[in-house]
């Protein structure tokens, strides 16, 4: 049995969740772990000197719990999938021979250990204007206070991205302003080639 881990990182609102969900629906025996599900409680996230909550940092995330979930999938993908509501496709005569885990999030390539687990890394980048427009129609919990993107989120994106580029190579950069269908077909074809090249 083979296990493949795909990383979908990128700018906030780059389209990571959208792309990951579509890939998961099309890739047999795949499931998604989203970094956004591991944010710490607001009460323990510190505030910077400008009064902005410091959410765009690995310190604001329960990375230990996220790594724990990835470890559970590695130990037993079939059990992980069924206990997290993902369908496993197999027959008695033909058990699944490949499981795919899609890990998506804005800081997945800034975590050294997590980085070492990926078979393939994609980064959905969007320019500032696109990010501002998309993020303004999103409501996070807690919601973005006025000036949050300009005063905190975008400067942190540039900082985290620089650190990522200094530490990580073999990332496939994608233009997140492309159509959803274009992004999906490009990445799907690339993953399928990767699965084919590394078949048993
Ligand atoms: N290719 C695309 N073209 C236009 N809009 C898109 C595209 N992909 C996603 N969107 C829209 O952009 C917004 C952000 O998408 P999504 O939630 O997938 O991004 P994300 O990278 O997961 O964001 P987050 O910063 O919360 O992690 C949503 O409103 C979504 O519908
Ligand atoms: N708890 C959350 O999901 C949460 C709370 C506050 C801010 N965010 C934002 O999520 C983005 C990553 O997807 C980051 O840019 C955070 O600012 C998320």
Tally of separate domains: 1
CATH H-tier superfamily: P-loop containing nucleotide triphosphate hydrolases
Fraction in beta strands? 15-25%
Contiguous runs where pLDDT drops below 50 for at least 5 residues: none
Shape designation = globular
Could you tell me the number of beta strands?
5
> What is the strand arrangement across the widest sheet?
2-3-1-4-5
Gyration radius, in Å? 17 Å
Explained architecture:
- With 200 residues, this protein is of the alpha/beta class.
- The chain has one domain: 3-Layer(aba) Sandwich (Rossmann fold).
- Helices cover 41% and strands 16% of the residues.
- Strands 2-3-1-4-5 form a 5-stranded parallel β-sheet, sandwiched between helices.
- Helix 1 (16-26) packs across helix 7 (180-197) and helix 2 crosses helix 3 (77-83).
- The longest helix has 20 residues, at 148-167.
- The chain starts with a strand and ends with a helix.
- Bound molecules: adenosine-5'-triphosphate and Nicotinamide riboside.
List its traits:
ATP-binding, binds adenosine-5'-triphosphate, alpha/beta, ribosylnicotinamide kinase activity, 7 helices, Rossmann fold, five-stranded parallel sheet, binds Nicotinamide riboside, 200 residues, transferase, single chain, magnesium
Strand-helix topology:
Blueprint: E1 2-10, H1 16-26, E2 30-34, H2 63-75, H3 77-83, E3 98-104, H4 112-115, E4 120-125, H5 128-136, H6 148-167, E5 171-175, H7 180-197
Parallel strand pairs: 1-3, 1-4, 2-3, 4-5
Helix pairs in contact: 1-7, 2-3
What's this entry about, in short?
The protein has 200 residues and is an alpha/beta fold. 41% of the residues lie in helices and 16% in strands. The protein has helices at 16-26, 63-75, 77-83, 112-115, 128-136, 148-167, 180-197, and strands at 2-10, 30-34, 98-104, 120-125, 171-175.
């Amino acid at each position: 049995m083979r296990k493949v881990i795909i990383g979908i990182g990128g700018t906030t609102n780059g389209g990571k969740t959208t792309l990951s969900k579509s890939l998961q629906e099309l890739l047999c025996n795949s499931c998604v772990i989203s970094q956004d599900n591991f944010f710490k409680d607001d009460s323990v996230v510190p505030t910077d000197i400008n009064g902005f909550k410091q959410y765009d940092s690995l310190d604001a995330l329960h990375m230990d719990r996220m790594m724990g979930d990835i470890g559970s999938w590695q130990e037993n993908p079939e059990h992980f999938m069924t206990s997290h509501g993902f369908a496993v496709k197999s027959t008695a005569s033909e058990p699944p021979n490949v499981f795919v885990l899609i890990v998506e999030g804005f800081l997945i390539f800034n975590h050294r250990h997590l980085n070492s687990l990926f078979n393939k890394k994609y980064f959905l980048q969007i320019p500032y204007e696109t990010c501002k427009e998309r993020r303004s129609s999103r409501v996070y919990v807690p919601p973005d206070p006025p000036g949050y993107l300009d005063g905190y989120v975008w400067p942190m994106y540039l900082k985290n991205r620089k650190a990522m580029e200094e530490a990580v190579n073999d990332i496939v950069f994608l233009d997140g302003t492309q159509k959803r269908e274009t992004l999906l077909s490009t990445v799907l074809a690339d993953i399928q080639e990767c699965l084919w090249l590394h078949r048993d």
